[in-house]
Amino acid sequence: MGLTENMSFMQSIVTFLIGFAIVFICLIAIALFIIISSKIIGVLVKEKVPEVKPATTAASPASSPKVVVQDNQEEVERLAVIISAISEEMREPVENFSIVSVKEI
Asked: How far apart are CA 25 and CA 33, in angstroms?
């Protein structure tokens, strides 16, 4: 294929397809390697993530549970934003400090 100075149109298409196929086969192989290795490492480490339980609030029977869960989710999101802002301001990771209470000003 590479003996002539110029390639014919069909030779260039075949060369393109071979290169294209090799690149995508390599990408698929890398993706499979990452998936398999992450599953193997996950099994070996067996790191338990603590479950975040929503805070229980005294709700009247007239209020729906969906509203309580939504309010709780909003509160969790607000706390996450506050924690990330404090972490950024202190220029330290979250693990290096603990927040005892949050008061609205």
From this structure: 12
Q: What is d(CA 102, CA 55) in angstroms, rounded to the nearest whole number?
A: 15
78 confidence band (pLDDT: 50, 70, 90): confident
- The phi, psi pair for 38, rounded to 5°, reads -70, -35
d(CA 16, CA 18): 6
- Range 89-94 average pLDDT: 83
CA distance 2 to 14: 12
Contact 85, 99 (CB under 8 A): no
Q: What pTM, to 2 d.p., does this model score? A: 0.40
How far are the Cα atoms of 2, 45, 87 from residue 49, in angstroms, in the given order? 57, 12, 21
Helices assigned H by DSSP within 7-64:
9-45
For residue 93, pLDDT over 90 is answered with no
Q: Report which of residues 42 and 71 the model is more confident about.
A: 42
State how far the Cα of 86 lies from the Cα of 92, in Å rounded to an integer.
9
